[in-house]
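task queued by scheduler; priority normal; single chain, no ligands, no partner chains; default sampling; output format set to structure tokens
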Amino acid sequence: MERRPDTLWLVRHGESTWNVLGLVQGHRAEPALTRRGVDQAAEAAEALAEALADRRLRAVYSSDLDRAVQTATAVSAALGRPAEADPRLRERNFGDVEGLPSRLLSADLYGLRGDQVVDADAAPPGGESIRGLVNRTAGFVQEVLVEPIGGDDDEGNLGDVVLVVHGGVIRALLAWLDGVEPDGMAWGPVGNGLVVDRPLAAARRASMSAA
């Protein structure tokens, strides 16, 4: 049987305490997994272990925020591979509105109306735009996952990659991988503990089109 092409796996962290409270999390360090979130992390880890059972795993990366690190710990245990934390995989930075109820965010601050991006350059005071989020996270993928580590035969360049991240990061990377510009992005629901995949070849194509 022909081997399936190398794959990028995106995992959202489990439910956090601030998810339950409806607060804007962004880069804040306080949110941690709830008991339900711990269970969701374990379920995502189990699903990944099953999906990757007969595949080569190249690396596991994680946001360095605690709710993602907690989830990545479960993933790493299931896959037998430590996760490398990187701040470039953090959620969108919401600046001065972090810690406030998310229902108070308006389109001029958030750049969103319903499930659609209406202004990819809108940013809260001290925060980051959706375009900035896409550029930051896509830059990580370009640098770490696409650029060759060694020669073409270097085994370090082969295999699947797992990223344990946040809902906004998953939306941003899926749009970039699918060739959708930030202004045209949808912003649909991304459940806690979700596991979604794309071929790594999509990242290479996206990098080439952006060059």
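post-processing summary
- The chain has a mean pLDDT of 90.
- Helices lie at 17-21, 35-51, 66-79, 107-110, 130-146, 167-177, 200-210.
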